[in-house]
Amino acid sequence: MTATSLPPGRYGPASTRRGPRRTVLVTVLAVVVVAAVAVLVWFGLAQSTGVSVETYGYQVKDAQSVDVTFSVTTKPGTAVICTLEALNDAHAQVGSKDVHIPAAENQVTRYTATVSTAERAVTGMADSCRTAG
Asked: Which keywords, in A-to-Z order, does the entry hold (predicted)?
């Protein structure tokens, strides 16, 4: 088998050409760096609010109200305001309520609140919480 030579000057000096291996390595490294930055930003934003909420359940009482049970996780001694929602079967919001949660000694506390609705709801949920004041 004979070796083929490239036409002189056509592809530039051999030392400046990049092979596919280096391109793949640079691409993989860039993806890893972007993913790491995204994870750090995600955790930074999650820690900045210091408040999280989780819906535990709901009970449709009648055509005008739904009870929502939820838990709030925050630093002890922090008062929060949580927004609750009631949705109909078309996923449209038919009720909303801001619930003021007083400061508690525990990090995790559970509450149940009633949301008034404009029409019959099929679900209720805790949408978000934020620190009061």
From this structure: Membrane, Transmembrane, Transmembrane helix
